[in-house]
Amino acid sequence: MAFGSEEPHHLDKVRIQTEREQSLIRAISEGDQAAFEQLFFEYHQSLIRFAFGITRSKELSRDTVQDVFLKIWRNRKAWMVNKTLRVYLYQSVRNQALNLLEKQKTHSRLQENYSIDYSTSYSLWEEDRSSFVGLSEYDAKRVMQIWALVDKMPDRRRLVFELHRKDGLSYKEISKILDLSLKTVENHMGQAIKYLRKELEKVEKKFNLD
Amino acid sequence: MNAELLARYLSRECTTQEYIEVESWLRISEEHVEQLKSYERIWVDAQQLNKLDIEFDSALDWSVLQNRIEAEDLSVEEQTPILITSRATALNRNISYFSRIAAILSLVFLVGFYGSQFFVQVPTEQNEAVLKEISMKKGQRGSVTLSDGTLVSLNSESSITLPDRFKSDVREVYLNGEAFFEVAKNEEKPFKIYVNGTVIEVLGTSFAVRAFPDDESVRTTVVEGLVSFRSQDEDISEGVLLSAGDLGEFNLKRKKISKEFIENLDPYISWKEGYLTFEQASMTEVRKQLERKYDIEVVFEDSNIEFLELTAELKSRSLRNVLETISLSLGLEFELDQEIVRFKNIGE
Q: Among B15, B39, B51, whose Cβ lies nearest the Cβ of A8?
């Protein structure tokens, strides 16, 4: 660790498994279908968006998350999680997403590439969305701009940034999920914010927001 | 003061020592505080990324998962056509877990739409006959590259349905709504688009097709190349051959096909570039397009407004500007409140 030897203030934020998580896992391993459904709906949106961040394909993202849950159910009797549930799930999704991407590359000749080109859709047509629930038009524009910029970041950095800002994961959790050193994660976050600030200043100088 | 440390400060991931360091750095000058504030703004705004995220249908995927689990438990005897749609009809969350009714409700929904002819063919190919639907909601537009290189741009509220893999002798696609096709040339494999009772056959070309559920006709506009346009109904033998600049129209009521050469294709394809063009279009039509593009509701407070005709090229992407232009040219007033627009005559 690069930091001083004293007790870190907020460092090492690994959430410990709550009692609730523990009982959920236990219930599922005992074959409780309602618990399994609960787990699914609780994590589905975040996990599938994370998968999309990696695969850029809606289809692969859906398959990835389904595969992960299928595996959990299939092996439920012996299912053990010795880390936090979130880290476990995100890690599994990442691994499966990469697996499916690999598979797709080898079968790729006729493989359809129909993932909606995310960066294109948003950077060209971003202003189609002129109203958002709870956001003023000005704010919505800003968020769109940030979105388009985040999309242009190199993959790892983007994933780190998204996991932190969108999914609220700690640096430590992110390092475990993406298999990076803590230092690298910190570095990515610093770069990300530097880049965003620079680019946003440019945009603001150029245009007056309508 | 490096960005990394500030990022850690904002994320509350720094040590106590570092926290103190940043606080004292802030006390040094107002400029430092401004710098932090600008970072903080980005920090907070970025959290809103969730509001813009791609939508996935959890209920649908839960259903699919259950079916997969069930399929593992039973042995599946024969391949059946499975439809995976990205916009499903509402699925009951309380579906009993391992229900023996293989409930893929969306299959029924789609058969109603496109008629039975497609599904009568039992798939003879080795591969699973998996159909997929790519759809755009109101306010969304997107493009898709198919496995043969064809580029399809979909307008709002539109969708195409096609097999996972094209057959060996033909490329078939079903369209609902509006799309612009740039079809990759392949002389050995004609590209066919089935839309609302008509079929458009293409060798390699770019053109637009429009058939929304509330339209009275199917329209095909050709930008480049050659396209044949006819009814799927075998009793109607006439078809037309369309080349660049032609507009083919199949009137659904009268079941008649016609063709005309038009000078200005813009009203038919400008949606692809993100703007709207109208040439003596009735306000009813204008309303439809506004609602579709911006995902809003448009209300005419005075009934005469429906009969006004608009000729305008609306290149601004801001809804407000568009409404202002329309109002100005037709002598109207408008009110925009949340997602509802009200047009009325001036002075009322």
A: B15
Q: Which DSSP symbol is given to A70?
A: H
Q: Which of A48, A112, A170 sits opposite B56 (nearest CB)?
A: A48
Residues 6+ apart with CB under 8 A from B318: A127, A130, A210
The fold of B141-264 is Jelly Rolls (2.60.120)
Using CB atoms within 10 Å of the CB of residue B74, give its burial: 0 to 12 exposed, 13 to 18 middle, 19+ buried. exposed
User: Which CATH architecture group holds A116-210?
Assistant: Orthogonal Bundle (1.10)
B125-169 pLDDT, tens digit each: 444 456 788 888 787 778 777 877 788 888 888 888 888 778 878
User: With an 8 Å Cβ cutoff, is B5 touching chain A?
Assistant: yes
Q: Angle of helix B58-73 relative to helix A58-74, nearest 10 degrees?
A: 50
Please give the CATH topology (third level) of the domain spanning A16-114.
Rna Polymerase Sigma Factor; Chain: A (1.10.1740)
| Closest residue in chain B to residue A150, using alpha carbons only | B46
Quick: pLDDT tens for B213-231.
778 888 888 887 778 888 8
Identify the CATH number of the domain defined by range B275-345.
3.55.50.30
> Is A49 within 8 Å of B18 when comparing Cβ atoms?
no
The residue of chain A with its CA nearest to that of B60 is: A62
* B49 lies within 8 A of chain A by CB: yes
Show residues of chain B in contact with A9, CB under 8 Å. Answer: 14-19
Domain ranges, ordered by start, for chain A: 16-114, 116-210
